[in-house]
Amino acid sequence: MMKILLDIYEIFVGLFSITYILLYLTLAFLSYYGIKQYLNTKHFITNNVLVKSNHIPGVSVIAPAFNEGATVVYNIKSLLSLNYPKYEVVLINDGSTDDTLEKLIREFELVKVDFYYEAKIPTGPVRGHYKSTNPIYSKLLVVDKENRKSKADASNTGINSTKYPLILCTDVDCILKSDAIIKLAKPFIENKKRIIATGAGIRSSNSCEVKDGFLVKIHFPTGWYARFQELEYVRAFLMGRMALSQINSLLLVSGALGLFDKEIVIKAGGYWHKSLGEDMELVMRMRKYMYENKLPFAIKYIPESLCWTEVPGNKTILIRQRMRWARGLIQTLFLHKNLLFKPKYQRTAFFILPYFFIFEFMIPVIEVVGMIATILFLIFFEVNYLFFFYISVVVYFFYLIITITSIFLDDVIYKNYANARELMILILMAVIEPFVYHPVNLYASLKGYYHFIRQKEQNWGNMQRQGFSTKPE
């Protein structure tokens, strides 16, 4: 009996490893093809043509802020300096208890105005809307609202207050590339099929030089955890999201930078204030709405880094963040489980949900169960040691090839690193990542699942930030 169980286990390990490798080879090919296609066609409509066009769609930039008094003025000035002919900045003061609103009023010469606020998406009470008396800041709208301990509620308030058909959702402390809106908006202009959302690469701003809200110089992160996340982001965005974009299977547009079709966002119900993965959950409902109304659509990914944000700098904050991500994932999958294998929902039902269930949600569980089973078999039974060794080596080196390819592809195309030394450090991080960084992520994911099952209180937690420096750390 034990011999049969051991044979079944070896077959399962072998088949799963082969499936894993084949899947990521497919994703790598799709990603390469997508990036090549993007680079070949990126000048089809140049940025200069878009900037001068009278028919370009208007964009509303939405940025919630809670107790950001220390940097909010610089952050807003940065957003007001983006290179796009028709846009506004909607800053939502989410019931800040510091001097955020007072600084905004003083710096931008704001006055309270009569504003027709239509709550197309239900939100908490709004205290008022503010506009500047200075024409220089005519693009700025500040919304003051009561705090409901939910970024989703603040974002929905901003959506209700916008005037343009496209909405760019970001965080007030994110630093956007000057042409970010242009590049995110291009798919909405160029594609015949209706684009409902676009996203782009996010990078770590840890150790970067920032002055008055503007990114002065990009520096390679100095902290270990920030470096691991830099590596993780490069691989996930270039090899993961770019590939899924090619087959219209994106389920996640980052909350730090995403451009959306406002009409579809509103009809889908906006952000859900109880979600810990509100960006993924919104995209799921937008896809669902399009399917149910038989409307052809696409979600596109831009393979460029257009946003820099501070990532967790230590293990405690990283675990807290990844626990929330894990709970957001299982929450979204559980909430929309009724879509699974229903023909009406097409690729979402037959590919996207199974993919995210097996290769995102189940992987941490499979890893732990597999490690425990392997240890037990090695201790109590006569097993084929070479089989497990070869499988482990093959999977490890495959992971290494995929990761190093992502690093070099990113550097060849975008030149984000200053010298060969930084590239070598990142490659070294890739070599040790499975043994040093991955176990932390694994622990955080399992802890997040446990908290979801136990129905512990769901909140964002205090994601402490160190802030930007004006010189390298």
From TrEMBL:
One term of GO molecular function:
glycosyltransferase activity
Indicate the segments forming the Glycosyltransferase 2-like domain, all copies: 60-104
Q: Which Gene3D superfamilies match?
A: Spore Coat Polysaccharide Biosynthesis Protein SpsA, Chain A
**Segments passing through the bilayer:** 12-35, 352-381, 387-409, 421-440
Q: Which InterPro entries match?
A: Glyco_trans_2-like, Nucleotide-diphossugar_trans
Task: For this UniProt record, give its keywords in alphabetical order, as a comma-separated list.
Answer: Glycosyltransferase, Membrane, Transferase, Transmembrane, Transmembrane helix
Q: In its keyword annotation, does this UniProt entry include Membrane?
A: yes
Q: Which PANTHER family match?
A: POLY-BETA-1,6-N-ACETYL-D-GLUCOSAMINE SYNTHASE (PTHR43630:SF1)
Q: Which family does it belong to?
A: Belongs to the glycosyltransferase 2 family.
Protein name stated in the entry: Glycosyl transferase family 2
- Tell me the organism's taxonomic lineage: Bacteria, Pseudomonadati, Bacteroidota, Flavobacteriia, Flavobacteriales
